[in-house]
Write a structure and sequence with these properties.
Elements: H1 2-7, E1 9-17, E2 28-31, E3 37-39, E4 45-50, E5 56-60, E6 67-70, E7 77-82, H2 104-112, E8 131-133, E9 143-146, E10 149-150, E11 157-161, E12 164-165, E13 167-168, E14 177-178, E15 188-195, E16 209-215, E17 223-229, E18 233-241, H3 245-249, E19 252-263, E20 273-287, E21 290-304, E22 309-310, H4 311-316, E23 348-364, E24 368-385, E25 400-421, E26 424-447, E27 453-477, E28 480-495, E29 498-516, E30 519-529, H5 534-539, E31 548-558, E32 564-581, E33 587-605, E34 610-623, E35 639-648, E36 653-662, E37 665-666, E38 674-675, E39 678-688, E40 692-699, E41 707-715, E42 724-731, E43 736-744
Parallel strand pairs: 1-7, 11-16
Antiparallel strand pairs: 1-4, 2-3, 2-5, 5-6, 8-9, 9-10, 11-12, 13-14, 15-16, 17-18, 17-43, 18-19, 19-20, 20-21, 21-23, 22-42, 23-24, 24-25, 25-26, 26-27, 27-28, 28-29, 29-30, 30-31, 31-32, 32-33, 33-34, 34-35, 35-36, 36-39, 37-38, 39-40, 40-43, 41-42
C-alpha cells in the first residue's frame, strides 16, 4: 500500500487558448485510456490524481485540436495551450463531470457549425425545440415557443448575457420581456441552455428552462463585415482589438464592437427598422489567481409595424397603406389588402438599453473559487400597438401606448469548493444574489390616431426587489453523480405605495449514471417559478404571486458509434398557475396546467466535411381543471422539428441547408380556431479564407407561404357592425437573399 501511495502524483493544470491566451472552460482532461478525468473550470484550471508519474493526458474540446501531453516525473503543474481546429465528433466524449450542463456538447457543436443570423435573437434558434416569432416589427422582443409553452416574450424562459438578466420584470408589454437585440452576434463566445426547472443558479422565469450567452473575453482577429440584400437590407459590423499582442500575452485584452442594421421588410408599409449596437470589453488576468472583466454596451432601435391582420381582412379585400404613406390608416373597402398589407400604420416603437457589467473571478487556497459580479442597466421602451382596431372604441379606434423607463441594479456571487477523496469528488457551492428594478412612468394608455391620450388603464412607478441565495452539492464517485440543493427567493413588489412580499423555496435533486464515455443516463427533478407583474400582485392583494412549477426529466446521452451523438429525454412539468395578458392590459389567472413530452436530438458526422443534425420535440400541453376538448393551451407547440446538413471543406467553402417545422396547433382552448403550421428551408454558402469571407444567405428558399405568428383576437374593422372572434396573423418572410463580405486582419 505504501508503494502505491508513493507512486501517486497530484498535478494541477490550466488550459488556455493559444492565440488569445484566455482560459478555456469545459475542456476534457483524461488520463490515458483509463477513462478517468475532469473538466476545466471557469479559470481553465483542473486537478488530477495520477497513479503513475508517467501518465499521458488527453485534452479535447469541440472546435479545438486535441492534444496528448506526457507528464514528467515529479511534475506538479502544467499549462496546456489549445489551437482552434475543425470539428470532429469522434473527439466528443460523454463526461460524468458535466452534471446539469449535459447540453454543453450540443451547444458546442451547434455554435461551431452555426449559420449566419440576422440578429442575436436568432441565436435562440440554436436551442433544440426553441422557436421564435416576430409579430410587431423587428424591434420588439420575439415571441418564444419552447417545451409546450407559448412563453410570450420570455415569461417561462430565463435569459441572461454574461450573468446579467435579460428578462424584464413587470414590463410594460408583458412579464419577463426578454429583448436580446443589444447583443452583437459576432461577440458571442459560448452559450449554454437547460430544459426544465432543475438548476439552483437560475431562479425567476426558469420554468421551461434557461438560456445563457457568454461574450468573448478576447478577439483572435479583427473583423469588418458588410451585408446587403433584398427588402432594402443593410448591415455593417466591426470587431477591433485595441491592445497590442504584447498586452495579450500578459493576459490583458480590450476590444470594441459595433453594428448598424437597416431593413424595410416585405411589408407594403416599410418598417424602416434601424438598430445600432456598441460594445466594449476589457479583461485582465491580474495575477495567477484573479481575473477581472469589465464590459459596457448600448443599443437603440426604431421601427414601424404593420402588425397582425385578421384572416377575413385578406379574404374580403380591405385596405392597405395608401399611396401617400399617411401616418394612420384604418380599414376601408376602398383598397385591396394582401398578406403583407397594413390596417393600422400608426403602430411601431423605439427602445434603448445601456449595460455595464463587472466580474472578478478569484482562485483561493484550499480549492476555493470566488465569483463576484455587479451589473447595471438603464432601459427605455415605447410601443404603439393596435391588434383589435375598433372592437372597443368604434370611433377613435383601439390604439394603445405602452411605455416605461427603468433602472436595474444587481449582484451575483458564488463561492465554490472542491474536495477530493481519492477518485471521489465533492463540489460545494453557495450563491447569493440581488436584483433591484425601478421603473418610471410605466403605463398602458388608450390613445387616438394622433397619439392623444383617451384614458389610462394603468400608470405609475414600480419598485421590485429580489434577494436570493442557494446551496448546491455535487457528489461524484465512480460512475455515479448526485446533485442536490435548494434555492430561496425573496421578492418585494411596490406599486402606488402598496407593498407585497413573498418568499419561495425551490429544491432540486438530480442523479446521473455514466456507464462509460459512450452512454450516460440522467434523472432531473426540481421546483421552479416565475414571478407575476407587480401591478397584478398589488391588485390581487398578493395572491398567486409566485406560481410554482414542478418537473422531471428522464434522459440519455449516447454515442452508439464514434461520429454519432444522441440526446433524448422524457419529461413532465406541472404549473400551479398560468397567467394570461388580455387586450386591456390586465393579467389574469389561467388555471393549473400540465405538460409532458419527448425530446430527441442527434448530431452525425458523415465525413470530415459533412455534418447532419436533427431535433424532434413532442409535447402535450393541457389545462388541468377543464374538461377534455376544452383544455387546450392556445398557441402552445405540440410538434416541432429542426434539422439540416452542413459542410466545411478545407478549401474554405462552407455552409448548409436547414429546415424548421412547426405543426398546426390550437388557437383557443376548445380548438375551434387553429394556428397554422409551416415548413421553411434556409440556405447559406460561404467562402472563408484567412483574410476574408464572402457569402450568401437565403431565407425561405422555396418561397413558402407561411404565417410567422397567429393568435386569437376579437377585432372589428371600420364599417363592421360588430366585433368578430377570429385568428389574426403576421405573415412570414418570403424568399429573402442577402450577401456578405467580411475582412479579417
Amino acid at each position: 500500500m505504501a508503494n502505491i501511495l508513493a507512486a501517486q502524483q497530484v498535478i494541477k493544470g490550466k488550459v488556455i487558448d493559444k492565440n488569445t491566451r484566455e482560459p478555456i472552460e469545459y475542456a476534457s482532461v483524461m488520463i490515458g485510456l483509463s477513462g478517468k478525468g475532469v473538466m476545466t473550470d471557469k479559470l481553465g484550471d483542473f486537478k488530477l490524481i495520477l497513479k503513475t508519474d508517467t501518465d499521458v493526458l488527453n485534452i479535447s474540446l469541440i472546435g479545438y485540436q486535441s492534444q496528448q501531453i506526457k507528464i514528467q516525473p515529479q511534475q506538479q503543474s502544467i499549462i496546456i495551450e489549445l489551437m482552434r481546429g475543425s470539428v470532429d465528433l469522434k473527439d466528443v466524449i460523454i463526461n460524468e463531470h458535466l452534471n446539469n450542463n449535459s447540453f454543453h456538447t450540443l451547444s458546442g457543436l451547434d455554435l461551431n457549425l452555426r449559420r449566419p443570423v440576422n440578429t442575436s435573437q436568432d441565436l435562440m434558434r440554436l436551442v433544440p425545440g426553441l422557436f421564435i416569432a416576430q409579430h410587431m416589427g423587428g424591434g420588439k422582443a420575439e415571441q418564444i415557443f419552447f417545451r409546450g409553452f407559448d412563453c410570450d416574450h420570455g415569461t417561462d424562459l430565463n435569459v441572461s448575457v454574461d450573468g446579467m438578466p435579460v428578462n424584464m420584470v413587470s414590463h410594460a408589454h408583458g412579464q419577463g420581456y426578454a429583448d436580446l437585440h443589444f447583443l452583437i452576434p459576432e461577440t458571442v463566445e459560448t452559450y449554454d441552455f437547460g430544459k426544465g426547472p432543475y438548476y439552483n443558479s437560475y431562479g425567476d422565469f426558469c420554468t421551461a428552462g434557461y438560456l445563457s450567452f457568454n461574450t468573448k473575453d478576447a478577439l483572435d482577429k479583427n473583423m469588418i463585415s458588410l451585408e446587403g440584400g433584398m427588402q432594402n437590407h443593410f448591415r455593417v459590423a466591426a470587431l477591433l482589438n485595441l491592445l497590442s499582442n504584447k498586452a495579450k500575452q500578459k493576459g490583458e485584452n480590450l476590444y470594441i464592437a459595433g453594428e448598424y442594421n437597416y431593413l424595410d421588410g416585405p411589408f407594403q408599409f416599410a418598417e424602416h427598422y434601424k438598430r445600432y449596437n456598441l460594445f466594449a470589453k476589457y479583461t485582465n488576468q491580474l495575477n495567477a489567481n484573479n481575473k477581472l472583466s469589465i464590459s459596457a454596451s448600448t443599443f437603440g432601435t426604431t421601427w414601424r409595424a404593420s402588425g397582425e391582420i385578421p384572416e377575413r381582412a385578406v379574404a374580403n379585400g380591405t385596405t392597405a397603406v395608401d399611396d401617400n404613406d399617411n401616418p394612420y390608416i384604418v380599414a376601408s373597402p376602398s383598397k385591396l389588402i394582401d398578406r403583407f398589407g397594413t390596417i393600422d400604420s400608426a403602430q411601431g416603437g423605439n427602445t434603448r438599453r445601456t449595460n455595464i457589467i463587472t466580474k472578478l473571478t478569484t482562485s483561493l487556497p484550499k480549492n476555493l473559487t470566488l465569483e463576484n459580479e455587479l451589473y447595471y442597466t438603464h432601459y427605455y421602451f415605447q410601443l404603439h400597438v393596435n391588434s383589435t382596431f375598433f372592437a372597443d372604441d368604434s370611433v377613435n379606434g383601439d390604439e394603445i401606448l405602452q411605455q416605461e423607463s427603468r433602472d436595474m441594479f444587481g449582484y451575483n456571487g458564488k463561492l465554490s469548493k472542491q474536495n477530493y477523496f481519492g477518485n471521489t469528488t465533492l463540489t460545494s457551492s453557495i450563491g447569493l444574489g440581488a436584483r433591484i428594478d425601478r421603473t418610471h412612468g410605466t403605463q398602458f394608455t388608450n390613445i387616438t390616431e394622433q397619439y392623444q391620450p383617451l384614458d389610462t388603464v394603468n400608470y405609475g412607478n414600480i419598485s421590485e426587489n429580489n434577494i436570493n441565495g442557494y446551496i448546491d452539492e455535487t457528489f461524484i464517485s465512480g460512475k455515479w453523480l448526485f446533485n442536490a440543493g435548494s434555492r430561496l427567493d425573496y421578492l418585494s413588489f411596490n406599486y402606488h405605495d402598496s407593498t407585497r412580499n413573498n418568499l419561495i423555496a425551490s429544491p432540486k435533486v438530480n442523479v446521473q449514471y455514466t456507464l462509460n464515455h459512450k452512454i450516460q443516463f440522467y434523472l432531473k427533478s426540481g421546483k421552479g417559478f416565475h414571478s407575476n407583474d407587480a401591478r397584478v400582485v398589488i391588485g390581487n392583494n398578493g395572491l398567486e404571486t409566485l406560481p410554482a412549477a414542478y418537473g422531471a426529466d428522464l434522459g440519455i446521452n449516447w454515442k452508439p458509434i464514434p461520429h454519432l451523438y444522441i440526446n433524448a429525454a422524457l419529461w413532465y412539468l406541472y404549473l400551479q398557475q398560468e397567467f394570461v395578458l388580455d387586450d386591456d392590459g390586465n393579467i389574469e389567472p389561467g388555471g393549473r396546467t400540465r405538460r409532458k413530452g419527448i425530446d430527441l436530438s442527434a448530431r452525425y458526422q458523415l465525413s470530415k466535411w459533412l455534418f447532419a443534425n436533427l431535433n424532434v420535440n413532442l409535447a402535450q400541453p393541457r389545462l388541468v381543471d377543464s374538461v377534455a376538448g376544452n383544455n387546450y393551451l392556445a398557441l402552445a407547440p405540440t410538434f416541432t422539428s429542426t434539422g439540416g446538413v452542413d459542410v466545411k471543406f478545407k478549401n474554405g467553402i462552407n455552409g448548409g441547408i436547414s429546415y424548421r417545422y412547426m405543426h398546426k396547433r390550437a388557437g383557443n382552448e376548445n380548438y375551434t380556431l387553429t394556428a397554422d403550421g409551416y415548413f421553411i428551408s434556409d440556405l447559406t454558402v460561404n467562402y472563408t479564407r484567412k483574410k476574408y469571407e464572402v457569402g450568401i444567405a437565403i431565407e425561405n428558399i422555396f418561397n413558402a407561404k407561411w404565417n410567422e405568428f397567429e393568435a386569437e383576437e376579437i377585432t372589428r374593422l371600420k364599417g363592421e357592425p360588430a366585433p368578430v372572434d377570429q385568428m389574426s396573423f403576421t405573415p412570414g418572410t418570403p424568399f429573402f437573399a442577402k450577401f456578405k463580405l467580411a475582412v479579417f486582419f
